[in-house]
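User: Quick one: structure for sequence A, then sequence B.

Assistant: Sequence A:
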Amino acid sequence: MGFVANYLRNLPAALTGRQPARPLFFSWYVTHRCALACGYCSDGEGRPFKELRSAELSLPEAERLLTLLRREADTLDLTGGEPLIREDLEGLLGIARRLGFRIALNTKGIGLPDRPELLRLTDVLALSVDSLDPTRLSGIIGRPPEVARQVLAALDFALAERKRLKVRLVLAAVAMPGNLDDVEQVVDLAERHGLGLHVSPQNVGTDVHPDLRGNPRWARLAQRLVEAKARGVDVLGVPEYLRGIRDMARYRCMPFLMPTLRPDGRACYPCLDFVKAEVDVLASGSWSAALAQARAQAGPVPDCGDRCQIFCHMAPSLLQQHPLSALGELRHWS
């Protein structure tokens, strides 16, 4: 099934208050390993991902998993941890490409200039950039400035090579109470170069950082995103999402639009940030069977209210719930 077909099939459920079950895309954490110490990195219980322990699938196992997922959706998000730590990442991307996935790769990009094949195998490169100043970025990632410069070198490389290698470049920034001016500069860069952009407010556990709630500087930054979107800037997310993160609004989460899987192929139910069950997709034989098994074990999806203002949960949910706004996002699906 494709993205648009699944979106249309989900509409009756989404518009009548039920949970849609057809995934728009899958997000696979191909590794939990990471050499950085970003202050905002955490799962729903506040643990940095690199502290989690999970086996990583071999390439043959990965091919089996991706074959099962491809029966359900045609779009794949690869993330971590830091995916570039996997020396076989080119192999994983090659498998996904052969199976017909559209691929988004989320990374800090350290080492990317030495692995240009990754760009050729990727449709969307989402570079995580939280500051353009190496000293300030150093503090955010918890590593020396020379490491921060490697992140910025990856950005320079991607800017130079994106058109030749036909990859869409998206800048992904986490807005924290202490880096709002830095994120403004990332927005400036994205606008100047015509890049994709998405900004997420920092979460602490499953709740947005308390110092962002009622913060006028955050509200101004989020409003800038709303206005940039209206001008045609390539800001990801429907307007309802951008207004939602501005106002910390309550929304109805639909986690099965973007199922998340751990490095070993276990699916998190209902989502990565509020895990009530984990089911092995390979052992289940399909994503649909894994979802049914998890529902039987853990029951219905909880109502999280105004928590978890994370792009990968909030943006797809509001996209699915606002079909007229979704028409404006068609350029991202092509």
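Sequence B:
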Amino acid sequence: MKVKNLPTHLFIISFFTLMLFSCKKEATTINLISANSSGNAAAGTIQTLDLRPGPNDGQDAYVEWKADDTAFASANFNYVPELPIAAWTVNSVPIKERIYIRFTGLSGIAAKAKIISAKLYLYGVSSSGNIITGNSYYQGSPYPDPNKCVIRRAEARKRWDESTITWNTQPSISTLDEVVFGPTTSQWNWDVVCDVTKLVKVMVKGAALNDGFAIQLQNEHPYRSVIFGSSEAEDVNDRPRLVVEYSY
């Protein structure tokens, strides 16, 4: 796949890294189902769908806006190992970054299923990542403002794809049952698990309703940043994960 030129900004992504992750493809989606001895799930049995896509089947990307350069808003940031969420400045010019994650494997749950619980796991990156600041809020940080984030359900009139989504084409979102998490407590390697049961209950009612999660800072005012691994991360343990328990 052709890798588009990316503007130089706060989060510096090397060409070598982009080429590495565009060439290395591997699927790591996991589907675990509790069933009876015959191999079929008995009525009322709690089943588990455990999704952790890799570079071949993951759908996640970040979008970016920069106040003085419209090229950022129309650029696609795909095939990168990290998902930055930020409100910052570059040479005193404001920028914003948001992320989108869709687990296509949710189609494995029928619309009639009863969703018992759904948890979204996001994993922080180490200081060896391709960013400068890491998470902005932690003990001893020069940036004192909390960097809480909010998870919402994306509602696209036209299905977005990680290879084409941009700031200008990002889907509309629903604020119903939004989930707030944070602030961070460390500059690097900050992991989080969020209860997204109410959001997933809507997503499994039909493919048209599963346009994924939209995640951004609760307050998009500089200087705030949070960083997680994407499905392109080389280490499988850094990739987003969704675990859903359900029954029929």
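The mean pLDDT is 85. Residues 15-247 form one domain.

User: Thanks, that's what I needed.
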